C-alpha cells in the first residue's frame, strides 16, 4: 500500500500556473536599429508606438517537460512510502534461568533410565532438561552452574540449541565440590536486573544443602521476591542421605514459598520429569505477539526520473540549437556573400 509522508506538499501543485497567470512576463534587452524617419513611419502606419517586446514561445516538449518536472519534484518532496503486509513476530515475555548443582555428589549413579540402566544425577538432569527446553520455544533461557561458587555458563538467549550444547559440556565438580545454593540465587538476581520482561523465573536443581554461601538461601530468596524473581527448587537424590550431602528440602520449600514458586522432590528420572511437568503447569508458555508493517521509501525513484528527464531535455535543446546554428552558417556560406 502506498502512503505519503508529506502529502500536504501537493498543495503547491497549482503554483506554476498562478505564477504564469499573475506575475509579469520576464523581460530582457535586445539590440535594435534606430530609424531617423521614425515619426514619419508612425504617420504612415497610423500605429501607436510602445515599448518593444517579444514573448518567446516554448515548444510543446518544453511545456510537457516542465509540467512533468514539477510533478516529479513535488512527488519527491512528498516522500512516498510503500507499506508492506503486516508481519507478526513472537517475543518472549519471560526470562528463565536454570541453576544446576555440579558438586561432587551429582556424580552419584542412582537414576534409572527407561531401559533399566543406572545413570548419574547430572546425566539425568541433562536428559530431562532437553525435553523441558523443547517446550519452552518462546522463553529466553540462561544457565548457571554452581558448586563452591556460582558461574554463568550461558547468558539469557533464545538460541536453545547453543544452550543445550553448553549444558551438555558441563561436568561434575567443574565449579567445585561444595554447594553454594544461596550464592547461586544471588548471581541469578544480578543477571535478572538487565531483564526487560515482567516474568522472571529461576529453577534450582541441587542434591545437597548450602555449605556456607555469603548470602543464606532464605535471605537471598527475600531479595529475589523484591526483584520479582520466582524460585522453583528441585531436590535430586536420596532424601535419607546424611552429613554434608543431606537434602535440605525445608530450605527449598521456604525459598519457593517466599517468592511464590515451589519445591519438588526427584528421587528418580520419572519423578524428575514430573517436577518439570508441574513447573510447566505453574509457568505456562508466555509470549508477546508483535505486529509491524515494513516500510520502504520510494522518494528516490521520482528524483531519478526528474534528473533523467532534465538531462534528456537539456541534451535535446542543445542539439537542436547546434543544428540551427549550423544550418544558418551553411545558408550564409551558400548565399554568395563575399567580402568587400
In DSSP terms, counting alpha (H) and pi (I) runs of 4 or more, how many helices? 10
Beta content: 15-25%
Roughly how many Å is the radius of gyration? 43 Å
Assign an overall shape.
rod-shaped
Class based on secondary structure composition and strand pairing: alpha/beta
Number of strands: 13
Characterization of this structure:
Helices cover 41% and strands 21% of the residues. It is of the alpha/beta class and 340 residues long. The protein has a domain of 197 residues: Rossmann fold (3-Layer(aba) Sandwich). Strand 10, helix 8 and strand 11 form a beta-alpha-beta unit. Helix 3 runs antiparallel to helix 10. The longest helix is centred in the C-terminal third of the chain and has 35 residues. The chain starts with a strand and ends in a 6-residue tail after the last helix. The C terminus is likely disordered.
Outline:
The chain has 10 helices and 13 strands.
Chart the SSEs and their pairings.
Elements: E1 2-4, H1 15-22, H2 38-45, H3 60-78, E2 80-83, E3 87-92, E4 94-101, E5 109-112, E6 118-120, H4 121-134, E7 140-146, E8 150-157, H5 160-168, H6 181-192, E9 199-206, H7 217-226, E10 229-236, H8 249-259, E11 262-266, H9 269-282, E12 287-292, E13 295-297, H10 300-334
Parallel strand pairs: 4-7, 4-9, 9-10, 10-11
Antiparallel strand pairs: 1-2, 2-13, 3-12, 5-6, 7-8
Amino acid at each position: 500500500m502506498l502512503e505519503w509522508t508529506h502529502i500536504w506538499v501537493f498543495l503547491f501543485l497549482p503554483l506554476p500556473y498562478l505564477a504564469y497567470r499573475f506575475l509579469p512576463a520576464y523581460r530582457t534587452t535586445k539590440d535594435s536599429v534606430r530609424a531617423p524617419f521614425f515619426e514619419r513611419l508612425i504617420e504612415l502606419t497610423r500605429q501607436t508606438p510602445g515599448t518593444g517586446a517579444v514573448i518567446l514561445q516554448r515548444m510543446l516538449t518544453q511545456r510537457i517537460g516542465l509540467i512533468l518536472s514539477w510533478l516529479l519534484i513535488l512527488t519527491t518532496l512528498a516522500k512516498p512510502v510503500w507499506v508492506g503486509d503486516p508481519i507478526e513476530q513472537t517475543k518472549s515475555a519471560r526470562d528463565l534461568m536454570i541453576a544446576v548443582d555440579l558438586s561432587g555428589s551429582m556424580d552419584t549413579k542412582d537414576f534409572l533410565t527407561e531401559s533399566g540402566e543406572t545413570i548419574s544425577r547430572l546425566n539425568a538432569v541433562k536428559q530431562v532438561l532437553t525435553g523441558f527446553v523443547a517446550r519452552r520455544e518462546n522463553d529466553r533461557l540462561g544457565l548457571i552452574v554452581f558448586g563452591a561458587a556460582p558461574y554463568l555458563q550461558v547468558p539469557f538467549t533464545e538460541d536453545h540449541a547453543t544452550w543445550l550444547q553448553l549444558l551438555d559440556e558441563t561436568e561434575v565438580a567443574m565449579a567445585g565440590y561444595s554447594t553454594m545454593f544461596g550464592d547461586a540465587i544471588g548471581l541469578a538476581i544480578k543477571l535478572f536486573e538487565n531483564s526487560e520482561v515482567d516474568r522472571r523465573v529461576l529453577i534450582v536443581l541441587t542434591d545437597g544443602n548450602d555449605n556456607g554461601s555469603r548470602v543464606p538461601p532464605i535471605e537471598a530468596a527475600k531479595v529475589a521476591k523484591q526483584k520479582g524473581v520466582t524460585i522453583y527448587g528441585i531436590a535430586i537424590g536420596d532424601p535419607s542421605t546424611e552429613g554434608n550431602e543431606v537434602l535440605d528440602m525445608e530450605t527449598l520449600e521456604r525459598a519457593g514459598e517466599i517468592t511464590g514458586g515451589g519445591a519438588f522432590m526427584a528421587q528418580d528420572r520419572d519423578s524428575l520429569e514430573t517436577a518439570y511437568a508441574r513447573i510447566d503447569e505453574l509457568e505456562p508458555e508466555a509470549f508477546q505477539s508483535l505486529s509491524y508493517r515494513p516500510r520502504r521509501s520510494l522518494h528516490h525513484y521520482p528524483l531519478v526520473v526528474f534528473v533523467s528527464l532534465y538531462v534528456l531535455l537539456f541534451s535535446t535543446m542543445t542539439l537542436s540549437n547546434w543544428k540551427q546554428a549550423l544550418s544558418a552558417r551553411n545558408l550564409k556560406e551558400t548565399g554568395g556573400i563575399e567580402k568587400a
